[in-house]
Write a structure and sequence with these properties.
Layout: E1 31-32, E2 35-36, E3 70-76, E4 84-86, E5 93-98, E6 101-108, E7 111-113, E8 118-124
Antiparallel strand pairs: 1-2, 3-8, 4-7, 5-6, 5-8
Protein name: Laccase-1
InterPro entries: Cu-oxidase_2nd, Cupredoxin
Length: about 130
């Protein structure tokens, strides 16, 4: 991919329960830290003009919690090229398992998930 001028840290969408949307870069933001961005918002490597971006309108996944104080989520990175960072706005995550094995709970703001990894997290539902 890199030899073709593709930014290795760029992807179109993240799926939640098989649902996700492709968002395109807003035209008012053509650069990031002085580097040109393609239509998808990916940094353009030298010699590459990027690809056209067509946004999608798929449904987002909504997880109903019905007033519960906590939710447990299994978060997986089934990708093969990129690690991802997972967070939930205004919430901390309690890591309670890694790849199916329970671990000493650890409180984090962001979960860094390498290729093929799975984490189980608890989230306290005390924010709007």
């Amino acid at each position: 991919m890199k030899s073709e001028g593709t930014n290795l840290n760029c992807y179109d969408s993240i799926l939640v329960n098989s649902k996700g949307r492709r968002h395109c870069r807003h035209p008012d933001y053509p650069t990031l830290n002085g580097k040109r961005l393609d239509e998808s918002g990916c940094v353009l490597e030298q010699g590459n003009d990027g690809v056209e971006c067509t946004p999608t309108e798929a449904d987002y996944e909504v997880i109903e919690t019905h007033g519960r104080p906590w939710i447990m989520l299994n978060v997986l990175n089934i990708g093969f090229e990129h690690a991802i960072q997972f967070s939930i706005d205004d919430h901390k995550l309690w890591i309670v398992a890694n790849d199916g094995g329970f671990v000493k709970p650890q409180l984090v703001d962001v979960l860094y998930i390498t290729n093929g990894a799975r984490y189980t997290v608890l989230v306290k539902l005390d924010q709007e």
